[in-house]
Amino acid sequence: KFESHYTDVMIAPYPEDIQTYHDRSPYYHVDQFGSPICFFQGMLDKVVPPDQSGQMYKAIKDKGLPCSYVTFEDEEHGFKIAANKQKALDGEFYFYSQMLGFTAFDPDIEIPIENFEEKPSGQAKK
Questions:
Q1: pLDDT over threshold 70, residue 11
Q2: Residue 121 above 90 pLDDT?
């Protein structure tokens, strides 16, 4: 599969050049993050394993930034199930509505957001 070895060409040979991976990894630069972030993770993903996105989510959450982590038990890398695609898009839209202060059209769409006080009306707290 193409994605399983493309990092050797796109980044550097691994593990020979492990420092390059460290330098480019967002996990080691969380101190530079300042914006809210939402993760949608397929739990069968072999390209971005769930433990990697989970560690990134925890680091962002521990920093105190608004963040969400939504998992899909039956998805790999690149969602294929229509209902999951819709849930991810709706969740992303809901996240934006909370961060940017507008009301999402569907009041039943909601995902948990850490480090953020949501208003019942769907309007973000200023």
A1: yes
A2: no
Residue range 13-32: mean pLDDT, rounded: 92
Please state whether beta strands 37-42 and 67-72 pair in parallel, antiparallel, or not at all (unpaired): parallel
For the record, the structure tokens of 118 come out as: 């949501």
Q: What is the 3-state secondary structure (H, E, C) of the chain?
A: CHHHCHHHHHCCCCCCCHHHHHHHCHHHHHHHCCCCEEEEEECCCCCCCHHHHHHHHHHHHHHCCCEEEEEECCCCCCCCCHHHHHHHHHHHHHHHHHHHCCCCCCCCCCCCCECCCECCCCCECC
Give CA–CA dist 25/110, Å, rounded: 30
Span 102-123, average pLDDT: 80
